[in-house]
Amino acid sequence: QVQLAESGGGLVQAGGSLRLSCAASGSIFNINAMGWYRQAPGKQRELVASISSSGRTNYADSVKDRFTISRDNAKNTVYLQMNSLKPEDTAVYYCNAHITTSSFALYNYWGQGTQVTVSS
Known about the structure:
seven-stranded mixed sheet
């Protein structure tokens, strides 16, 4: 089995920063793309940022120039550095990873979610 463990959410004032981390563990052969999604109350889950295994990144327009996604392949970990946070960034943030398991099956895994609240 594979697990994704997220950390780093919390309450911050507008203009502040937070760093989210997501570590994958378990029967992993290879981790392909990783990413962060978020879901605000009453809204659909949306992609925030993604990063390929080679480091190519993609961002939602609403977070470009404020958020940075990165990964440490040696630690099976993806990060999301969030700067200049706005109240509209308030949401539950979910880690996502496309993982080839040690039995060579490809699955799409999700973390449990971490709450980010930005006060005005």
